[in-house]
Amino acid sequence: MTQRTTDGSAGDADYGTIGTSYSAYRQPEPRIGALIEQALAGARTVVNVGAGAGSYESTAFEVTAVEPSASMRAQRPAHLPAAIDATAEHLPFPDDAFDGAMTTFSVHQWSDLKAGLREMRRVASGPVAVLTCDPDLVRDFWLYEYAPLVLDTEARRYPAIDTIAEALGGNVTVTPVPIPVDCTDGFNEAYYGRPERLLDPAARQSCSAWSFVDAETSEQYTEALRRDLESGAWDARHGRLRAQPSLTGSLVLVLAR
Length: 257
Prior knowledge:
With 257 residues, the chain is an alpha/beta fold. 31% of the residues lie in helices and 14% in strands. The strands form 2 sheets. It has a 6-stranded mixed sheet, with helices on both faces. Strands 6-7 form a two-stranded antiparallel ribbon. Strand 3 (100-104), helix 5 (113-123) and strand 4 form a beta-alpha-beta unit. The radius of gyration is 18 Å and the shape is globular.
């Protein structure tokens, strides 16, 4: 049974509490959006599951958004259609209602991953695109040196890529997604070359894994990063990343046809 918070959030994080800054810090990155649009090419109607504030909803498609969190639905910009209050595990649409389906940074929130993916497959007659992170690669990021419990949480919450592929079935491809150094979507790895951004409490709050770490521990992590940035220790180890145009980290696009 899907458990929902008072805000309506259907996963293990309460977006009524942590999602207030998402629309400011989690702006869709156009270069990532282009890859999703390419993956869904040929579709006219697309359902966006776990749509949040509307990131990556391309105007190339007629998009129907599904989002259980009231806070996230309220942050959708005026030019986007209102999102339907529903969960991935129980999509209120008939079979093959859409040409395609998509979900971005959402599957780790679902209480029943396989049921949600089966629902996406059921309501889409064409491609299903899932933007997510590979849990086997999450800890390779430099942030693990400073905030191990945050990335341990991410690695625990993100489902295995093989599990996603098996649940979707069909012809499945998994493509690593390069993260540009000036990425406008503020997930943890987006700041690979801009570590100072993670000193901003609102930036951290917009990455849900930080909400699983108590305030004292989070402050200790942040202070360690601040000290290394001020002393130059971070740049001595990782400064080359500031000039690196993109990072191929844990972000992947899973496409099932």
